[in-house]
Amino acid sequence: MDRTGSILVIDDEEIMREILETLLTREGYSVRVVADAAQGLELARTAPFDAAIVDMMMPGMDGMTALDELKKIDDDLPVVMITAFASVESAINAMKRGAFHYITKPFKNDEVLAVLRNALERRRLVAENRALRQNLQAHANHFGEIIGRSQRMRQVFDLIIQAAPSRTTILINGESGTGKELVARALHQNSTRADRAFVTVNSGNLPPDLLESTLFGHVKGAFTGAIYPKKGLFEVADKGTIFFDEIGNIPLETQAKLLRVIQEREFMRLGGVETIKVDVRIVAATNVELRRMVEEGKFREDLFYRLHVITVQLPPLRERREDIPLLAQHFLEKYGEENSKPRLELTPEALDLLIDHDWDGNVRELENVIERAVVLSSGQRIDADLVPEHVRRSRRFQMPQFVVPPEGISYRDAEIAFQRGLIESALEQAGGVQKRAAELLQIKPTTLNEMIKRHDIRPRRKRTGQGSPDPDEEAAEVPIGD
Ligand SMILES: Nc1ncnc2c1ncn2[C@@H]1O[C@H](COP(=O)(O)OP(=O)(O)OP(=O)(O)O)[C@@H](O)[C@H]1O
Ligand SMILES: [Mg+2]
Fold first, then answer.
1. What does the pLDDT read at residue 94?
2. Spatial separation of the C-alpha atoms in residues 156 and 148, rounded to whole Å
3. What is the number of the ligand 1 atom nearest to the C-alpha of 183?
4. In DSSP terms, which residues pair with 242 in a beta bridge?
5. Residue 120, SS3?
6. Which pLDDT tens digit goes with each residue over 414-472?
7. Pocket around ligand 1: residues whose beta carbon is below 6 Å from it?
8. Which residues contact 430 (CB under 8 A, 6 or more apart)?
9. Residue with the nearest Cα to atom 18 of ligand 1?
C-alpha cells in the first residue's frame, strides 16, 4: 500500500513529538512537527497536509480550538486527536465537531498507524468522490443529448469527434441558446480527459481582480482578505478541461495573462513567485463576433488567433428547421416524464407553428416553450392554443395580397397606408418602445420617430392576446385611407 502522505503533528510535549516523528517518518510519511497550535495553523495555511495529529491539552490554544481552525482552512482534512485516558469524553466531543478519530495516551504504534491509514484512505475517497460527482454532472449532458440530424449538425458532430482527442484549443461560436455548453461538454466527454474535471469559468460576471484570483489562485496575503492560500480554476482543471463561457467578456488585462497560460501552460498564483505548470484543454465559447471585437480594440488579436485554431460554428435553429420536430419530440419526452405526463403528442398545427417560428432564443427558447406547454396541457394532445402568443404571432411575415379595385386607387394613399400599418404593427410588437420598433423595421430610431410624426401615429396600448385576430389576417388587413 502507498504510505506517502504529509502529516502535521501538533503537540506541546517534546517526547511525544519525537516518538511520532520517528514512527511516521519510518513509515514513509513526510512529517512536520510543531509545539503549539498557532505554529501548526500557520503551516497548514501555507502547505497542504493530508492529515493532522493534534494533542487535546496544550497551553495557549487548546486542541479543540485548533481542530476548529484547521477545519476552516481545509474542511476535508482528517484530524486525529490525542488525549489522556481520563479525558476521553472531550475527545468524543471533538469527533462530533469533525475530528476523524482519537487516540488515548499511552498509545501503541500500530494503533496510530492504523488510524492514520484510515484517515488518508478517507481523504483519498472524498477527493475521488468529488471528481466523480463533477463528472456525473458532465455525463448528464453526454454526446447523445445533443439532438440534430441536419447537415449542419452532422458537421458539428464530426468536428467534435475529430477534435476531441487532441489538446488543441477550441472556440465554439454561436448565438445564445444554440448549445455551446453542450458541445463543450461533449468535447470533454469524447477526450481522454473524460474522467477528469470539466471546469466552467463564467467569464462575464466577475470584476477583473476577482476573475484573476479565481483563475490563477492566490497565495496567503496576496491582497487584503487573502487569509488563506487558494487554488485557482486552472489548477483544479489540471489534466481535465477548462471551459471559458462568454470569453468575449474577459477584460483586456486578464486576456494578456490568459494568452500566456495558453502559450506556456504555466502561471503564477496571485502574489506568488512559484511557477505552476498545468496540463489543461482550453475550450472557449462566444456569442459575439470576436473578430469584430478585435477590430474595435476590445479583444486582443494575438489571443483571438490562439483561440481560433479550431472553431465549431453552431448554426442558429432557424437555419436548421428540419431539426425542430426532433428537438420538440425530445423535450416533449423529457418534460412529459418530469411532469408524469407520458405519451404526449403535438398536433400538426402546433408543430407547424414551431417550425415556422424564427427562434431568436434558439434551442433554449424552444425548450422553454415545450416545457410550458407540457405543464399547461390537460389531455394527451398539445394543440396550437398551448403555443405562446409570441410564437404564433411571429409567423414569417407574408406580404398582403393587393387587389386593385375596378374603380382604381391612389398609389400614394395606398403606399402611405401600408407604411402606417407597418409602423403600427412594429410599435405594437415592441410594446410601444420606439427604439425596439426601429430595430424590428431595420431603420434608425430617428427615422422611425420622423415617420411616426409624419403619419401622426398616436401611442396605442398593447393589445392583449385574447380575441386578437389571426396574425396572417392582420398582416393582410392594411387600412387604406382613414
Ligand atoms: N442540439 C441540442 N439538443 C438538445 N438540447 C439542446 C441542444 N442545443 C441546446 N440544447 C439545450 O438548450 C439549452 C441551452 O443550451 P446551452 O446552454 O448549451 O446553450 P448556449 O449556446 O451555451 O447558450 P448561451 O449562449 O445562452 O449560454 C440547454 O438546456 C440545452 O440542453
Ligand atoms: Mg452557455
1. 87
2. 10
3. 18
4. 199, 282
5. helix
6. 889 889 989 998 998 888 899 989 988 888 899 999 999 988 888 655 444 444 444 33
7. 145-148, 174, 176-182, 287, 327, 363-364, 367
8. 436, 437, 439, 440
9. 179
Cell, residue 427: 410599435
Q: How far is the CA of 178 from the centre of ligand 1 (A)?
A: 5
Place of cell 496510530: 112
The span from the CA of 18 to the CA of 14, in Å, is: 6
Q: Any idea which ligand is nearest the CA of 364?
A: 1
Name the residue at shortest CA distance from atom 8 of ligand 1: 179
Query: What count of Cα atoms within 13 Å lies in the side-chain half-sphere of residue 281?
Result: 27
Q: List, as one string, the DSSP characters of 55-84.
A: ES--SSS-HHHHHHHHHHH-TT--EEEEEE
β-partners of residue 453 are none
The pTM score is 0.59
How far are the Cα atoms of 20, 185, 221, 276 from residue 232, in angstroms, in the given order?
Answer: 34, 20, 15, 11
Q: Which of 364, 365, 368 to mutate to test the pocket of ligand 1 (most atoms within 8 A of CB)?
A: 364
How many angstroms does the Cα of residue 340 sit away from the middle of ligand 1? 24
Q: Which three cell numbers stand for residue 333?
A: 419526452
Q: Would you say residue 230 has pLDDT above 90?
A: no
How far apart, in whole angstroms, are the C-alpha atoms of residue 41 and residue 19? 21
Q: Cα(86) to centroid of ligand 2, in Å?
A: 59
User: Degrees (nearest 5) of the Cα angle 89, 92, 95?
Assistant: 155
pLDDT in tens, 70-114: 998 888 899 999 987 667 788 888 888 889 988 888 888 998 998
Here the cell at position 464 is 392583449
71 to 12, 52, 102, 383, 403: CA distances (angstroms):
20, 11, 16, 57, 82
Ligand nearest to the CA of 180: 1
All three cell numbers of 135, joined, read 463528472
180-189 vs 109-140: helix crossing angle, rounded to 10: 130
The more confidently predicted of residues 78 and 226 is: 78
How far does the centroid of ligand 1 lie from the alpha carbon of residue 187, in Å? 15
Rounded to whole angstroms, how far apart are CA atoms 279 and 290? 26
DSSP category for residue 76: T
Strands 217-218 and 79-84: unpaired
CA distance 67 to 285: 43
Q: Which one, of 142, 144, 150, lies nearest residue 325 by Cα?
A: 150
Q: Which of 139, 181, 245 to mutate to test the pocket of ligand 1 (most atoms within 8 A of CB)?
A: 181
